Amino acid sequence: MAYSNNPVHPHAQGFSAYVPNYSVHIYQSILKDVVTIAQRNNCDRIATLQYLPLTTFERWLLNNQFSCWRETVMPSVLLDKIQLAELSIKQGQHLLTLRQIKQSDYWWKTLIKKSHEDYVASHLVNPMIKMADSNWAANTNDAADGHTCCFSYWRSNSFLHIFI
């Protein structure tokens, strides 16, 4: 068992467990321990991150008041093996690099605001703390450096495609 707490998501007690195929009695005991830790840490919910295929314990959790609230799809191929079609930018669309975005106060604030709103909206089950866009920007700026991301946002009558 491993326990974790995330200051950005203070409502949930995180836990991870590798549990071989034991009896329901063991599963109930583990869940009771997690609830005790959560209560001690003033958390009103518990959360766990699991990978497919789910174990018997994880399937038991899903049948006992747990639900899957988000799935992440990750490629199972090396990046140098991915073939992409040539990018076609239509009239009214914009393609900006991270450098261009950071040089434009308007585009940087637009990206920060939209990404912050999207993150908050996708974490309603495990809400994050209230955070000013400027604090979100500081975290995003650190996370974006050296990484590749793509955002596509609907703006007015066109899409804004941002490649970072």
Describe this structure in words.
It is a single chain. The chain has 164 residues and is an alpha/beta fold. Helix content is 36%, strand content 19%. The protein has 5 helices and 6 strands. It has a 3-stranded mixed beta sheet with strand order 1-2-3, with helices on one face. Strands 4-6-5 form a 3-stranded mixed beta sheet. Strand 1 and strand 2 (9-16) form a beta hairpin. The longest helix is centred in the N-terminal third of the chain and has 17 residues, at 24-40. The chain is flat, with a radius of gyration of 20 Å.
Descriptive terms for the model:
three-stranded mixed β-sheet, 164 residues, flat, alpha/beta
How does the major sheet shape up?
3 strands, mixed
Reading the helices and strands in chain order gives: EEHEHEHHHEE
The portion of residues assigned to helices is 25-40%
Work out the strand percent.
Answer: 15-25%
Mean pLDDT: 78
- The tally of beta strands, per DSSP, is 6
Count of DSSP-assigned helices: 5
| Through-space gap between termini | 36 Å
In order across it, which strands form the biggest sheet? 1-2-3
Overall shape: it is flat
Sheet/helix structural class: alpha/beta
Poorly predicted segments: 146-164
Radius of gyration: 20 Å
